[in-house]
């Protein structure tokens, strides 16, 4: 059964900076300070992007003293990958289907 792709996740990954953050978090768990250094973004801007990624369910936080660490949730990306694979399979199957114009 074809499932719909979560629009919040797609929207979250549609921003170049958020996609860069996800790419960085795929390699290691990082705190806000690390992410500011790696991306060059201002801390307040980065915090807003991290909120979007958290609300979309892509990252989780881990408080550590006065720092907050961010970790990617790979199961969400794996689910998204599966949904896109289903869409691709559906498109292959439907490639010969053409609705006639009135």
* Rough outline: elongated
- Percentage of residues in strands: 5-15%
Oligomeric state? single chain
The helix fraction, in percent, is: 55-70%
Number of beta-strand segments:
3
Category by helix and strand content: alpha+beta
- Side by side, the strands of the main sheet go 1-3-2
Distance between the termini: 30 Å
Instruction: Please trace the helix and strand order, writing H or E for each element.
Output: HHEHHEEH
Q: Biggest β-sheet: count, sense, barrel? A: 3 strands, antiparallel
Rg value: 18 Å
Instruction: Give start-end ranges of low-pLDDT stretches.
Output: none
Average pLDDT over all residues: 90
How many distinct helices? Answer: 5
Explain what the structure shows:
There is one protein chain. Strands 1-3-2 form a 3-stranded antiparallel beta sheet. The protein is built from 5 helices and 3 strands. Strand 2 and strand 3 (67-72) form a beta hairpin. Helix 1 (7-13) packs antiparallel against helix 4. Helices cover 59% and strands 14% of the residues. The protein starts with 6 loop residues before the first helix and ends in a 9-residue tail after the last helix. The chain is of the alpha+beta class. The mean pLDDT is 90. It has helices spanning 7-13, 16-27, 32-39, 43-55, 74-93; strands spanning 30-31, 59-64, 67-72.
What's the layout of helices and strands?
Blueprint: H1 7-13, H2 16-27, E1 30-31, H3 32-39, H4 43-55, E2 59-64, E3 67-72, H5 74-93
């Amino acid at each position: 059964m074809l499932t719909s792709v979560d629009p919040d996740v797609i929207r979250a990954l549609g921003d170049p900076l958020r996609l860069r953050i996800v790419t960085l978090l795929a390699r290691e768990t990082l705190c806000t300070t690390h992410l500011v250094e790696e991306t060059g973004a201002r801390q307040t801007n980065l915090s807003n992007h991290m909120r979007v990624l958290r609300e979309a369910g892509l990252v989780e936080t881990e408080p550590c003293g006065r720092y907050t660490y961010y970790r990617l949730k790979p199961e969400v990306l794996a689910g998204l990958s599966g949904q896109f694979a289903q869409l691709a399979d559906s498109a292959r199957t439907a490639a010969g289907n053409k609705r006639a114009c009135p």
